[in-house]
Design brief:
Number of domains: 2
Distance between the termini: 60 Å
Number of strands: 0
Helix content: over 70%
Strand content: under 5%
Largest sheet: none
Organism: Caryophanon tenue
Radius of gyration: 17 Å
Number of helices: 9
Protein name: Tetratrico peptide repeat group 5 domain-containing protein
Shape: globular
């Protein structure tokens, strides 16, 4: 199995079994460095940071987020905003900086959508969905229900391109319902 196939395998594990992804990604990172696949190197790096967030190792995820820009410079790569900005948004959320968190969530969604429209890969489509869902959830938690619904409706046309067994399909509908319920609940509380 080559590095591209192994990367795809690890990427599929992140959402459901991050511990398994964490077993694969460090070795894969080194293999990608050895063959000069630096774009994959940074994707492995970011996905490992996501995995650390998913298992609750916030300190390690912060360290990795803080080193991302330096590593891009070391490898001569541009910062991949669609991948990096979600890490920054999560970091700002944990620090309680709501304004910066909102900024990076929205920017991550926008960059992922733009990149998907150019490259049309499943990975970018799912990254766009993930970023949009996180942004809509943050808006919902901030009682910005109408804006959250706009975000969810923006990703709806892309839903047919999401693989049929992918969790994003179910999460899309559940998020849509959650926003509507929260909006209705808020309206009832204020009447």
């Amino acid at each position: 199995m080559d590095v591209n196939e192994r990367y795809e395998e690890a990427r599929q594990l992140i959402a459901h079994t991050p511990a398994k992804a964490m077993d694969i990604l460090p070795t894969l990172y080194e293999e990608c460095v050895a063959v000069g696949a630096y774009d994959k190197v940074m994707k492995c790096y970011v996905n490992l940071a996501y995995s650390y967030y998913n298992v609750g190792n916030i300190k390690r995820a912060y360290e990795m987020t803080n080193d991302y820009e330096r590593l891009c410079a070391d490898f001569g790569l541009a910062i991949a905003c669609a991948y990096y900005y979600p890490l920054l948004a999560t970091q700002y959320a944990a620090l309680g900086d709501k304004e910066q968190c909102f900024f990076y969530r929205k920017a991550a969604m926008t960059h992922a959508q733009t990149q998907y429209m150019e490259e049309k890969t499943e990975e970018l489509l799912l990254l766009y969905f993930a970023n949009a869902k996180l942004y809509a959830m943050q808006l919902t938690n901030d009682n910005q229900f109408d804006e959250a619904l706009v975000v969810v409706k923006t990703i709806e046309p892309f839903l047919p391109f999401v693989p049929s067994m992918n969790v994003n399909r179910v999460e899309f509908y559940s998020q849509y319902a959650y926003i509507a319920l929260q909006k209705n609940s808020s309206r009832l509380q204020h009447s």
